[in-house]
Backbone:
């Protein structure tokens, strides 16, 4: 039993892992926090657990805001995830246990995965992909996606994985920004019994992109016409006679491992750059310590490989640690609402890492679904992506964890690369709703705008005050944007973009984004992206989007739109606009609500006051309106609030 040790009048629960868990935990000595006070020594010792072709000259070179970790060292991420496990019994251990949406299964041992990756890396080389060339990957959640990522890192080609739910236009933007010449995709994927036309989206995306050399297509569904013309080629044909003798390229610790695009306050998504040595040190250490990884664990991270969680905690962290990773293509409710629990029972999953939005969905469906299944194999649970409300935490603890499993609530970002704030389950007490304390070797504080630490209990902004090994190194091709976005608020301190407070025990309570980023089901959507998609529609003059609290998704997108002169509000226009956004960006960005309005509330200088829109969307009394240029704008909007 993990024990609840207090329940104060303020409804603050504190949980401690069971004695048994703590006794067996990989990290059971709280002295680790003290030890890691010497950050550089801590991270250097952790780096030394990886396999290096050449040792580094320096642990950290810090020319704010540019960091070099383990500079001079040489290693390869794919080698660390595969080759180094082959000498001992891990060679025949499952690296990937896969189940597709349609129930097909596949197991790949470390030896087999190494074989596939080596072959595909050789294929990429033979197609002319060189160290430093960016390869775009747009794939369903199938083993070939992992093979593709590791094959890229094997030859030193940074990958740019684009989430399979993104639209053609989103793919095009990312291909263009990264100047990528090779795309790896699949004919299609499965989703809730339907076929997702991935290759079709790639074809659409590539219209007008001149630079593409090859599109490699994995046959997932069996659409024979998915490969056409000179440019396209089937993965299985390339692999048929490929040799498996592609040695791993010796990469500098600071060579780019991958680029991953994420939404920010303004403009198009930015390419977050992660490099090799520090990233791998950060993700392998956090994965091992936070998930208390043991040799026999069956570890399941439900995130898609298109997000950072998929990169760090489905691929690089667990495989560097020699874990057995369960990979699932489908959704929790197909064919039935107990699919996750069925899989946990079937494969004996021991560690489950998922998002609060999923947990709230399960809560809504009710406990009868998990109750039908045997979940006794589970020993540790994790959450990520957004704040978890204590009710959902307690439900997860009781109905999934059988009141036996500790829960690690992990705070981090695409940019941080690795988990930054989380409990260590054998050491740290857990408070539902708090991500607890910074990981050893990570320095985080809550500061006010002017950079002063706030009092305990006061709301401020999350700051990371010292560089950390898995930090982003820059925004791809845009050092200035990197500097301004993350290091422009306070000198030498990383601005995370989250509001938070620290309680009297030093625990962090994340409130949410303080910028114009909406967190929909744990996915970041920039208001600017949705707004620019909307104004590209011929009927729309202006658009403003906000995140509206949503019981399951955390936040939902609500948009306020004014129409162009002479355009009448047709009955089906709202739906048309919603679908237009989905087509431009992807279904995850589709607004839940679109309100047509005469005017938007603006300041005298013409800036839209989103706070007022938020009040209206959430049905609250409208706060301060003194800065409004035209008070009548609000009267019309108030009618919307009453609808
Ligand atoms: O607002 C925070 C929220 O997700 C943001 C980062 O989003 P992204 O880069 O897409 O990465 C998501 C997965 C790492 C953060 O700025 N967030 C992430 N984890 C938590 C969280 N908010 C509260 N609690 C968390 N555990």
Residues:
């Amino acid at each position: 039993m993990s024990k609840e040790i207090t329940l104060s009048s303020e409804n603050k629960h504190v949980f401690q892992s069971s004695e048994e868990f703590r006794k067996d935990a990989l990290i059971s000595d709280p002295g680790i926090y003290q030890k890691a006070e010497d950050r550089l020594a801590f991270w250097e010792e952790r780096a030394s657990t990886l396999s290096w072709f050449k040792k580094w000259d320096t642990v950290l070179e810090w020319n704010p805001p540019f960091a070099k970790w383990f500079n001079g060292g040489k290693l390869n991420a794919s080698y660390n995830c595969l080759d180094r496990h082959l000498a001992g019994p891990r060679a025949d251990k499952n690296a990937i246990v896969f189940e597709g949406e349609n129930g097909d299964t596949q197991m790949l041992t470390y030896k087999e995965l190494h074989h596939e990756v080596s072959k595909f890396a050789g294929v990429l080389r033979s197609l002319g992909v060189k160290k430093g060339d960016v390869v775009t990957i747009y794939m369903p959640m199938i083993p070939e996606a992992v093979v593709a990522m590791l094959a890229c890192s094997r030859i030193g080609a940074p990958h740019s994985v684009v989430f399979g739910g993104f639209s053609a236009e989103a793919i095009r933007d990312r291909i263009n920004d990264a100047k990528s010449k090779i795309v790896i995709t699949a004919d299609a994927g499965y989703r809730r019994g339907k076929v997702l036309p991935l290759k079709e989206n790639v074809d659409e995306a590539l219209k007008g992109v001149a630079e593409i050399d090859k599109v490699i297509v994995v046959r997932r569904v069996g659409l024979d016409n998915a490969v056409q013309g000179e440019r396209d080629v089937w993965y299985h044909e390339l692999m048929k006679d490929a040799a498996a003798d592609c040695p791993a390229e010796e990469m500098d610790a600071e060579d780019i491992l991958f680029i991953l695009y994420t939404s920010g306050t303004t403009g198009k998504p930015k390419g977050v750059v992660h490099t090799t040595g520090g990233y791998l040190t950060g993700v392998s250490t956090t994965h091992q310590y936070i998930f208390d990884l043991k040799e026999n664990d069956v570890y399941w991270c439900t995130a898609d490989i298109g997000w950072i969680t998929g990169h760090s905690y489905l691929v690089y962290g667990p495989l560097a640690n020699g874990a057995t990773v369960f990979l699932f293509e489908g959704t929790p409710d197909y064919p039935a609402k107990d699919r996750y629990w069925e899989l946990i029972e079937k494969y004996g999953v021991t560690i489950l890492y998922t998002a609060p939005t999923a947990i709230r969905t399960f809560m809504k469906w009710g406990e009868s679904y998990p109750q039908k299944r045997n979940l006794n194999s589970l020993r540790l649970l994790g959450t990520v992506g957004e704040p978890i409300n204590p009710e959902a935490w307690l439900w997860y603890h009781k109905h999934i964890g059988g009141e036996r499993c500790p829960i690690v609530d992990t705070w981090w970002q695409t940019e941080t690369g690795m988990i930054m704030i989380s409990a260590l389950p054998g050491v740290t007490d857990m408070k539902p709703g708090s991500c607890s304390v910074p990981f050893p070797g990570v320095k985080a504080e809550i500061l006010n705008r002017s950079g002063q630490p706030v009092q305990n209990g006061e709301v401020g902004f999350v700051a990371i005050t010292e560089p950390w090994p898995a930090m982003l190194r820059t925004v791809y091709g845009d050092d200035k944007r990197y500097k301004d976005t993350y290091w422009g608020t306070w000198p030498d301190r990383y601005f995370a973009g989250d509001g938070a407070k620290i309680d009297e025990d030093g625990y962090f309570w994340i409130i949410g984004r303080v910028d114009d980023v909406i967190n929909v089901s744990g996915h970041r959507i920039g208001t600017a992206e949705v707004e620019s998609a909307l104004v590209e529609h011929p009927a729309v003059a202006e658009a403003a989007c906000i995140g509206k609290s949503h019981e399951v998704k955390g936040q939902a997108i609500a948009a306020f739109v004014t129409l162009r002169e002479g355009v009448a509000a047709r009955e089906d226009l709202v739906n048309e606009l919603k679908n237009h956004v989905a087509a431009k960006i992807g279904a995850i960005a589709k607004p839940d609500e679109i309100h047509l309005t005469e005017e938007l509330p603006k300041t005298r200088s013409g800036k839209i006051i989103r706070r007022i829109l938020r009040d209206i969307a959430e049905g609250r009394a409208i706060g301060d309106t003194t800065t409004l240029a035209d008070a009548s704008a609000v009267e019309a909007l108030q009618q919307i609030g009453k609808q």
Observations:
- The chain has two domains: 12-129+250-500, 521-641.
- DSSP finds 20 helices and 32 strands in the chain.
